[in-house]
Amino acid sequence: MKPEPRQLVLDLAHRSALGLEDFLVSASNQAAIDLIDGQLDWPNGAALVVGPRGAGKSHLANVWRMKTEAGLLSAPEADETLVLDAAQSGAVVIEDLDRGARDEATLFHLLNMARQGKTLALFTSSRAPGDLDIALPDLRSRIKALPMAVIAPPDEALLQAVLVKLFTDRQLTVEPGVISFMMMRMERSMAAANRIVAEIDKLGLAMRRKVTKQLVQQALEIMDNRPQES
Question: Mind listing the domains of the chain with CATH numbers?
Answer without folding.
Answer: 29-150 (3.40.50.300), 154-229 (1.10.8.60)
